[in-house]
Predict the structure.
Amino acid sequence: GAVVSQHPSRVICKSGTSVKIECRSLDFQATTMFWYRQFPKQSLMLMATSNEGSKATYEQGVEKDKFLINHASLTLSTLTVTSAHPEDSSFYICSAKLAGGPETQYFGPGTRLLVL
Amino acid sequence: QKEVEQNSGPLSVPEGAIASLNCTYSDRVSQSFFWYRQYSGKSPELIMSIYSNGDKEDGRFTAQLNKASQYVSLLIRDSQPSDSATYLCAGSNSGGSNYKLTFGKGTLLTVNP
């Protein structure tokens, strides 16, 4: 149980294009999902907290207009990197918390983004 | 003090030995604690959660929480080369309603055959 998927697993795009990443909880409902970014040899950095049916809460220093988050259902959250640039190249990982459950977060497999 | 601190290592142990990973935390992170394992190039996977003082055992893994001293540890018995990974300690924000976890920077463990 508690399986989280992400799609795509890997994406290469040209600078200036937008990229959408999907995060799905496959066998449970998740009222809260989280988006992280991880650069090589560094720890996870929380970007935003996504709550179903409401606006995401962004961490300090994260541009909400650049990283658009939508959490339209209890099993799906999307992150759109708008006008991506090479410095946005990173490993993006989502996690989901079981609705009504403890704070345990279950992670998706991650999306590796390379912006050329 | 940073909210969650871990010794970055690397920690190297021989196969079959006990690996001991430690984590300290500040008052802002004092509700629940989690240990995640992250293999290189992969996302974190949950090993254990612990909410109350004392020990919690699951197979070869034992988590220990001491709220008075503000530390949480993970022991791995009979370490195997497949245990080689980065281990992340995380705590939830005390009194928070958004369930955010604060992660340490991780400890790199290498188990030598």
Remarks:
- The mean pLDDT of chain B is 90.
- The interface with chain A takes residues 31-32, 34, 36, 42-46, 49, 51, 88, 92, 98-101, 103-106 of chain B (CB under 8 Å).
- The first strand of chain B starts at residue 4 and ends at 6.
